Amino acid sequence: MKKHRLTLIILAVLTAIAVFFIISRTKGTFKRELSEFAIYDTISVVKVFLADKNDNTILLERQPDGGWIVNEKYVARKDMVDLLLSTLLNIKVKAPVPKAAFNTVVGNLSARSTKVEIYQRKYLIDLFYRIRLFPRVKLTRVYYVGDVTPDNIGTHMILENSNMPFIVYWPGFWGFIASRYSTKLTDWRDHTIFKHKFLQIDNVELFFPAKSEHSFRVVNNKKGSMDLIPYHQTLPVTEYDTLKMLGFISAFEDIRYEALIDDMDQTIVDSITASQPLHIITLTDVQGNRKQVKTFYRRSYYDENGPERPSEFDTERMYALINNDQDFVLIQHRTFNRIIRPLNFFLPNDK
To answer: Domain-by-domain residue ranges, the chain?
Structure first.
């Protein structure tokens, strides 16, 4: 009798285990079909296309050197691309959208969402990631990113050709992830203006239009040092502060703008850029490529000392024209002060 009872208990346990695995497998299949948003092999991602309902589009493409290009023209910001790839890897489904909110969420996704297309490099033959033959680029995910949830933790998403929206989140991250899928070009463009090391620089010219006596050229003499040549002269000075010159040239390794200005009234932009520049900085590299920056005052109501001391111009920021005068940007004094030095800054005190 005891043996028969033990057999029944074992059968019951095995039946429960079998039912559990059947249910789990069914749920797993459901999730893979309707809620698989994450990309677990982001190294294979070679292209991401983003489009919103206002016809704004972003195309990110991985380059052979590992960098990224945005909209086939501009260098993409590494931090933004890295954040997007991390998002693609780490997002998880928290739950389906509740029935009570279903119609509202679906309506919002239809009216204002961002379409996401992810392309990966796949191989026709792929044996344990060791033998890979016949690569091709394949569209592997298409989904829509909508609004944040009321608790500001999740984001509504839905796969293409699905009628089941989900709440998606990044475990451990407090906030919503829709901003990682921005369709604003200004969010994706790299802010670098100068990124040149000493050996990459042929010459730098710094011109002060209102004070030409401060202007000069620095020329790489290919002997491990730089020649300092005052404006309107052909011969270099015989003596200058080498440490100050080293700091000046080294600063060109990383000079960035703060923000691209694309929402200012064009008449105001034209008025500013038609005025006399404060500085004109021209760098020519050893390949003969030339980059130029023109800086302009930025008007301000008050300086950093408070409203009791009004100042005509901003003491922290300036405007600038870069990329052959095509881009109007905001720059910081503390960044550019490293490369805006008058000639006498480098000369001995008695010069």
So the answer is: 34-188, 192-345
